[in-house]
Design the sequence.
């Protein structure tokens, strides 16, 4: 054990030395921090890194442009995942939230990615009046005024989103199924996870309202390998369509096996299936034809953003996805809040920045962004995509292997 | 589909699942019979086997679902991959026994089992880190021919799996019953001391049991990959618990028992999912495990539960 | 760690006091809220490790599903103090509202009940609830042997989170409980500040530590360790193994339940994912690292693993990434070592098991340094008067009970097709010494095992002091006054001489877990007397064992181990002492010495039944000799008669050789 203590001390010393030796030396600028809390290891790591780079890019550009005056912003990157959980860990997220709340130079936070972390972080951030802007957490409960006592004990909203919630993602897709795909029946599956269950529930409620017959609702075990039993059951119902709320852990197997057992059923899911794993693990032809949604408008292919996409790809070596864009926008919101406080001449504290963010209007990559009084984005656009193999593009390039279909009907 | 057709279809599904669980349970029960040791690492050897198979098949140029073979190239490439997988897994199993379990052979209590948990964790996490927790697409060189019998769909793949599993199981049974080494294994299972006194090289026998069991696990892994067309670091875990229940249900240490248990669990899983609900499948299977151990520890075909405390 | 053991008790106490000071002042040392949070989490894990240590370390029950009880405690509090359950308000709820267990939410007809069971009440309540689940689960399963038990607990550990996930109406399923209320102390509502939670956690650990430390050297703790070391011997010494296993299991469950409530109150949310298998395994790794059965080791293991995950690995990652930035290596720049912690756990398990099974804080302090004089001293025999207690105890037992006569009629034992004993009948009159002899395989040990309840006969009657012994458990047989030793010595290997013999007194001591924890004067007096009795018993063997009182029995010579076993049997104050080959492995001088001592037993009223091979010992001791061959009684009579019996000689030597 003495060995590891020595090693750790060396490590701490080394980090300190190297940090000081880094090119961005400690200048005369005052340094403030924007927290970035994401599950950087485990099951969601790949997606989390795309989000991370989106936020980092915004901060970097803001520093370079000189619009921040005499201060400099640095990201404070904290990992919300633990190895024991194998993915995001609410306890770790809470610890990170405490760290943010306890660091005076942290003015705002970008994150979390997953709503499970959000639920743990929200009360802590609320008491500290520290705003967080999430690019991808879609569980509606956190900003629902009915649960304000649990998630917002401080009284002022701190959970802002540059993405819309499952309160819209699920139901808008149901609208899409009813009005665009014109299906008469659906069978709904979830992956027993917090996100998937919530999304599937929201879809189910709206589907029933739109007159689609819900022929059944079942649950997949993400750890199991064989869904043939459930799929055979679904086949027997002769359903016209299938909706899956959940992530790719169960999704990979579902996509492959449903291709075998219910090939002619129309299939769709939420943003959980909009992942490179659709191609690399599930693969074509199984993934062909699956619909998916994103809780934000689809802009990554917008020619107006081509330069931005090029810059991102060049800086980080990987192509951005739609959540990288919402992350960039989230960081923009934070930066805009900080600038507003500077302009008003008030001291740079987390509380002041929060107040500024609540009333901010930002022109983000996805368009104009502003928040309602609970912290949700005022725009509720849900984009629909369909997977379609493009043999000329690399298999893992999500943007090339799926087609943008349009905006899901919203009511 | 009519009610009967649905039932039959689930039966077919269950048999395919069951064949795989049976293979996995067999290897596990072999080791338990000899050492009275629950080897948790067995199920991650299965997982490693799936990845080895993937690597070999990809080396042959079979990528994803794009390449389909027929006839001789199909059979030869599959056999070659299976052979490599089985040998690699067997060697892995022997290494585990030799370096981590043999020193524990005379230690009482739960220590040896804890060691296998550790080895299992190591295998699991090494693969997790190497693959970044992502699932990988498995080559699918078999033509997708389906046979339809009265509303029930049987895939060619399923048939091939049944055949391979049956051949392997029959081979193992033959080996255990007829060959000298097999007899030696059964002797050691009954009474290691006596066997040693009769001139049986116990260490060698244990190694062979581990090799055979692990090779079967590796084969089951490759079969898994070919059947489900994917592999991931986590496949050992769920398949493992089910195969484990199968071994216990059939009678732990009992070779035919493992086969029967495997098929039964496969059927229970599919029929249970159909008529109860998929979300309770795990609970049903674990309850079977617990109830079997409490009320009939010898399992369905087992003779008598070992008395060693 | 060895250096620690060499410190005097005073120095150790001072060290502990200093450590406690540091821990109490930790939040004021300026380490930051996040680190206090980590410290509070470490307290939770330390508490879990202490609980699992009782189950795995003390009692040897491998529990792979420990997190299930953690979950049960968490959800118990979570459900009773959150918005999850909201039945309609009615007047019936008013009394509960008056004492603060529920609150009325909303008004008028739409009013619902908000459960607000207080944290401080739920702490012990969850312990009880989890313990009940532990007992319900353990009752049918704890009699399974070790590996089966592990599997069954694994299954249970899997089922609980699945039920939590599927039973949405009760637990809100996968989305987890929302709005779990924090603790309220005298009106002060714990907020998001981690410091009060840290103190609660610290208090929890100190409480559980105290309980563990008190239990370990107590009668219950010894009995647990006896069960772990050798269940058969423990049972033969009067330990009701199933009940003790259940107690250990329930207690471990209770610790986990209490910790679950604490953890959830701090997090204010609970999801089923928080209680999966990796959590159970992590706690197991903690106690393996620290040292199975070591109380301090459990805490050390928990702290080390938490520090590993929360501080060491992230710091190392940061350093490696900094290095990567400096040398422009993208591989190093992106290396995240925190995801390797599970791999490290596996490596810890394997390396500890292979190279340091005792863990970092080994329990053994079994190396007693005898002085040169002690080692070199001529062996001496002790005087018999020291066993006055034994004599008095026997007199008391005999006073109003039937005479200590052993009657066996037509005892038949079959193992499958083999008949080990065929219609054997014999009598052991009170106060006599009867020897059973016979060639190997004649059924002598089977006879012993049948009498003491280890083997179930298929026919026959065994009566002692008028009481029917057949069908009794071994510990019940001991309580009836019959104690035994084993042919191949079954001592508790990792325990000391003193502890081994103390366990013999299990049935004569009465302190339970509660008494031990509270340290009642009655319990302390009992322990003192028990130890004195042990010393008296061992004095019978002179200076052979008394200087070695605190030595692990595994290091004693074969003859000394035999003596300890006999002392242990005597410690149970039996009326009938059954010795299975007591002089095996002793040289002629030692054998005769022991024979004299056994003869002396008869002087204070003990009845002895022994199996022996050495004819001179038999001749010296036995009033009556019974010869068994192939499970049947071949002959009976005085020693010299039996020696000359032709059938007996044939049985030993073979047909055709007759010697006078």
Sequence:
């Amino acid at each position: 054990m003495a060995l590891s203590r020595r090693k750790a001390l060396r490590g701490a010393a080394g980090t300190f030395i190297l940090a000081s030796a880094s090119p961005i030396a400690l200048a005369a600028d005052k340094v403030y921090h924007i927290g970035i809390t994401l599950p950087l290891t485990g099951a969601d790591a790949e997606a989390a890194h795309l989000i991370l780079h989106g936020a980092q890019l915004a901060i970097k550009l803001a520093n370079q442009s000189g619009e921040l005056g005499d201060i400099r912003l640095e990201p404070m990157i904290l990992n919300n995942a633990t190895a024991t959980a194998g993915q995001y860990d609410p306890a770790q997220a809470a610890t990170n939230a405490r760290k943010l709340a306890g660091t005076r130079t942290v003015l705002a936070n970008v994150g979390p990615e997953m709503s499970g972390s959000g639920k743990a972080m929200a009360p802590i951030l609320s008491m500290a009046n520290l705003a967080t802007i999430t690019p991808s957490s879609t569980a509606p409960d956190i900003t629902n005024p009915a649960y304000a006592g649990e998630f917002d004990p401080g009284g002022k909203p701190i959970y802002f989103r540059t993405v819309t919630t499952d309160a819209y993602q699920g139901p808008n897709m149901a609208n899409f199924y009813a009005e665009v795909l014109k299906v008469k029946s659906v069978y709904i599956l979830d992956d027993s996870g917090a996100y998937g269950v919530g999304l599937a529930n929201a879809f189910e409620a709206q589907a029933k309202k739109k007159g689609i017959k819900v022929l059944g609702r079942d649950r997949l075990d993400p750890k199991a390998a064989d869904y043939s039993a459930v799929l055979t059951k679904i086949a027997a119902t002769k359903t016209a369509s299938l909706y899956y709320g959940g992530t790719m852990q169960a999704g990979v197997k579902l996509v492959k096996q449903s291709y075998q057992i219910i090939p002619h059923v129309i299939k769709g899911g939420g943003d959980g299936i909009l992942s490179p794993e659709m191609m690399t693990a599930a693969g074509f032809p199984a993934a062909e034809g699956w619909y998916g949604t994103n809780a934000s408008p689809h802009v990554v292919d917008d020619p107006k953003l081509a330069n931005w996409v090029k810059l991102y790809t060049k800086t980080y070596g990987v192509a951005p996805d739609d959540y990288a864009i919402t992350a960039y926008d989230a960081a923009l919101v934070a930066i805009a809040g900080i600038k507003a406080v500077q302009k008003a001449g008030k001291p740079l504290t987390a509380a002041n920045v929060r107040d500024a963010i609540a009333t901010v209007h930002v022109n983000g990559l996805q368009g104009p962004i502003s928040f309602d009084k609970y912290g949700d984005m005022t725009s509720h656009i849900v984009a629909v995509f369909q997977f379609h193999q493009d043999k000329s593009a690399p298999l893992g390039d999500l943007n090339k292997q799926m087609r943008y279909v349009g905006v899901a009907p919203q009511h | 589909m009519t009610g009967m057709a649905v039932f039959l279809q689930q039966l077919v599904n269950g048999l395919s699942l069951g064949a795989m669980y049976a293979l996995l349970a067999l290897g596990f029960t072999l080791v338990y019979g000899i050492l009275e040791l629950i080897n948790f690492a067995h199920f991650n050897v299965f997982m490693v086997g799936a990845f080895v198979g993937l690597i070999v098949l990809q080396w042959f140029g079979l990528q994803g679902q794009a390449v389909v073979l027929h006839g001789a190239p199909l059979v030869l490439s599959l056999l070659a991959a299976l052979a490599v997988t089985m040998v690699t897994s067997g060697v892995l199993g022997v290494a585990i026994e030799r370096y981590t379990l043999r020193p524990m052979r005379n230690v009482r209590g739960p220590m040896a089992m804890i060691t296998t948990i550790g080895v299992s964790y190591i295998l699991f996490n090494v693969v997790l880190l190497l693959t970044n927790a992502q699932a990988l697409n498995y080559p699918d060189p078999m033509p997708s021919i389906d046979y339809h019998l009265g509303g029930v769909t049987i895939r060619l793949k399923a048939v091939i799996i049944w055949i391979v599993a049956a051949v392997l199981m029959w081979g193992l049974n033959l080996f255990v019953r007829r060959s000298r080494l097999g007899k030696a294994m059964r002797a050691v299972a009954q009474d290691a001391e006596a066997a040693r006194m009769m001139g049986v090289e116990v260490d060698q026998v244990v190694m062979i049991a581990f090799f055979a069991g692990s090779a079967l696990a590796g084969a089951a892994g490759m079969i898994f990959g070919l059947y489900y067309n994917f592999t991931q670091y986590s496949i050992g875990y769920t398949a493992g618990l089910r195969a484990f229940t199968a071994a216990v249900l059939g009678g732990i240490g009992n070779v035919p028992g493992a086969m029967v248990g495997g098929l039964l669990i496969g059927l229970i899983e599919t029929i249970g999912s159909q008529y109860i609900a998929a979300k309770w499948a795990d609970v049903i299977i674990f309850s079977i495990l617990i109830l079997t151990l409490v009320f009939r520890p010898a399992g369905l075909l087992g003779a008598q539960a070992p008395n060693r405390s | 760690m060895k250096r620690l053991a060499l410190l005097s008790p005073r120095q150790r106490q001072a060290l502990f006091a200093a450590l406690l000071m540091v821990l109490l002042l930790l939040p004021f040392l300026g380490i930051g809220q996040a680190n206090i949070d980590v410290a509070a989490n470490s307290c939770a894990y330390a508490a879990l490790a202490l609980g699992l240590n009782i189950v795995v370390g003390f009692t040897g029950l491998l529990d792979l599903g420990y997190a299930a009880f953690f979950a049960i405690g968490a959800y118990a509090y979570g459900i009773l103090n959150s918005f999850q359950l909201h039945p309609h308000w009615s007047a019936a709820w008013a009394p509960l509202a008056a004492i603060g267990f529920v609150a009325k939410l909303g008004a008028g007809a739409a009013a619902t009940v908000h459960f607000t069971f207080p944290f401080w009440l739920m702490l012990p309540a969850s312990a009880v609830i989890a313990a009940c689940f532990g007992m319900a689960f353990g009752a049918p399963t704890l009699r399974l042997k070790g590996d089966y038990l592990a599997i069954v607990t694994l299954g249970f550990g899997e089922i609980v989170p699945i039920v939590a996930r599927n039973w949405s109406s009760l637990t809100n399923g996968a989305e987890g409980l929302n709005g779990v209320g924090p603790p309220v102390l005298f009106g002060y509502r714990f907020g998001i500040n981690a410091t009060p939670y840290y103190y609660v956690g610290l208090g929890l650990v100190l409480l559980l530590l105290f309980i563990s430390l008190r239990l370990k050297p107590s009668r219950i703790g010894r009995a647990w360790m006896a069960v772990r070391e050798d269940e058969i011997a423990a049972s033969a010494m009067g330990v009701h193994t199933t009940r003790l296993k259940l107690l250990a299991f329930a207690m471990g469950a209770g610790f986990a339940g209490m910790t679950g409530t604490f953890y959830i109150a701090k997090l204010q949310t609970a999801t089923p994912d928080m209680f999966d298998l990796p959590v159970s395994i992590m706690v197991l790794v903690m106690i393996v690292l620290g040292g199975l059965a070591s109380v301090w080791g459990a805490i050390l293991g928990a702290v080390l693993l938490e520090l590993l995950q929360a501080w060491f690995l992230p710091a190392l990652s940061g350093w490696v990434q900094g290095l990567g930035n400096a040398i422009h290596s993208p591989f190093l720049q992106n290396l995240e070592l925190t995801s390797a912690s599970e791999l490290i756990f596996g490596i810890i398990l394997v390396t500890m098991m292979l190279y340091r099974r005792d863990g970092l804080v080994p329990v053994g302090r079994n190396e007693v340094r005898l002085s040169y004089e002690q080692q070199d001293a001529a062996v001496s025999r002790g005087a018999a008067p020291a066993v006055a207690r034994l004599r008095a105890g026997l007199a008391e037992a005999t006073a109003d009970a039937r005479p200590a006569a052993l009657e066996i009629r037509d005892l038949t034992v079959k193992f499958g097709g083999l008949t080990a004993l065929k219609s054997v009948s014999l009598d052991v009159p009170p106060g006599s010494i009867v020897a059973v002899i016979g060639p190997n395989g004649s059924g002598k040990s089977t006879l012993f095992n049948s009498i003491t309840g280890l083997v179930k006969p298929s026919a026959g009657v065994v009566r002692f002091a008028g009481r029917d012994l057949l069908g009794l458990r071994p510990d019940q047989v001991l309580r009836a006054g019959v104690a035994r030793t084993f042919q191949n010595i079954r001592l508790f290997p990792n325990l000391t001489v003193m502890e081994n013999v103390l366990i013999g007194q299990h049935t004569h001591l009465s302190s339970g877990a509660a008494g031990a924890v509270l340290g009642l004067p009655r319990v302390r007096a009992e322990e003192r007397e028990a130890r004195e009795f042990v010393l008296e018993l061992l004095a019978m063997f002179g200076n052979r064992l008394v200087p070695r009182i605190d030595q692990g029995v595994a290091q004693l010579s074969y003859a000394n181990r035999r003596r300890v076993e006999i002392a242990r049997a005597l410690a149970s104050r039996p009326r009938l002492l059954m010795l299975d080959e007591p002089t095996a492995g002793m040289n002629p001088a030692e054998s005769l010495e022991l024979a004299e001592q056994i003869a002396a037993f008869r002087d204070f009223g003990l009845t002895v039944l022994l199996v022996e091979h050495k004819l001179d010992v038999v001749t010296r001791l036995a009033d009556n000799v019974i010869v068994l061959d192939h499970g049947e009684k071949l002959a009976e009579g005085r020693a010299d008669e039996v020696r000359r019996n032709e059938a007996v000689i044939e049985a030993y030597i073979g047909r055709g050789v007759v010697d006078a």
Notes: Residues 295-327 of chain C form the longest helix (33 residues). The first strand of chain C starts at residue 102 and ends at 105.
